[in-house]
Amino acid sequence: MAHVSLRGIQKVYPNGFKAVHGVDLEVRDGEFMVFVGPSGCAKSTLLRMIAGLESITGGELHIGEQLVNALPAKQRGIAMVFQNYALYPHMKVRENLAFGLKLAGTPKAEVEQRVLEAARLLEMEHLLDRYPKQLSGGQAQRVAVGRAIVKRPAVFLFDEPLSNLDAKLRASMRVRLTELHQTLRSGGRPATVVYVTHDQVEAMTMGERICVLKDGSIQQVDVPAALYERPANAFVAGFIGSPEMNLHKVDLAQGAVHWGGVQLPLPPAKAARVGMRQGAVTLGLRPEHLTAQRTHAGAVPLPGRLRFMENMGSEVFVHAEIGGLRFTSRVPPDALGDLATKARGEAHTFHAQAQACHVFDADTGVNLLL
């Protein structure tokens, strides 16, 4: 395998539109790196630049120790899995898996060995003599992944490979792809993977590290837990997490935030971080850190009203209005207390874990507590 190094990578189209703004990123050898962000953030453009399907306007791209800016795609040692699978409909699965190897002049015995090895790895030996039209969406995706595996590339590239699958199949394929990466590593064949998705659940569950992109620029690169617990800015905070973080413009004064007659004092360590700063800021509070009852020492009571509740089975999403602003709370069903019997519009005192809140600059979005 090989590491992938992006140094000041830029992409400017002929009409002058700058899609990628000087991206610097190191994807480690054998790492599972996920590019995530909203539509139009240039994550697929970056992937296609790595693949050699999109030209690079500025900067340097290295795969391993080789500068590949001007190198054709077929010489970069990469294998790409597309969103639409791109299987040859007139070929059986066995032939689809072998096609690239045959074009490269690989000996017949080795082709057969690699095809069977990939089929066993993906548990699809029984599919080898079927045509693509006879496959389910999940089976077709496994064939597309198998076609990449048989090439034994330096780098695997995945461009939103699960977006065409239904929710249940997407969840099972997430597990399968993650296990495949771990299996290859434990078998002495670690795979460097760059995986593009707009689905932050996919990113959080699959990526060893995640690169969050917005408007062609990197917002933060870190392990999933760090992105969730220590977001660098309000964009990352709002994008990572489901339900998303509660983010509201409030006023900061004397180590506390205020809005609509409600006050939330910051713990001493957080108050020290913001110092004497005053004025407008953005408060961030994860739904699980706003509870229906006082469950933590130091929790701050916030008077509000119940808007409505969504019972998800293992948890309840409580939608509330506090000080004129709308908040979402994630509560276990057995922790609702008397809120379970209240009707829409009824008053209720919620409790905020101030120790877990974030404060962002109102203009730049930068996390003031990091």
| CATH superfamily (homologous) name of the largest domain | P-loop containing nucleotide triphosphate hydrolases
Q: Quote the CATH topology of the largest domain.
A: Rossmann fold
CATH architecture of the largest domain: 3-Layer(aba) Sandwich
Number of helices: 9
CATH class of the largest domain: Alpha Beta
Shape: elongated
Q: Please state the CA-atom Rg, rounded to the nearest Å.
A: 25 Å
For the biggest sheet, the summary is: 6 strands, mixed
Helicity, as a percent range: 25-40%
What average pLDDT do the residues reach? 93
Hey, roughly how much beta strand do the residues contain? 25-35%
Q: State the order of secondary-structure elements, H for helix, E for strand.
A: EEEHEEEHHHEHEHEEHHEEEHEEEEEEE
- Residue ranges: pLDDT <50 for 5 or more in a row? none
Given helix and strand content, the structural type is alpha+beta
- Strand segment count: 20
Sheet with the most strands: spatial strand order: 6-7-8-3-9-10
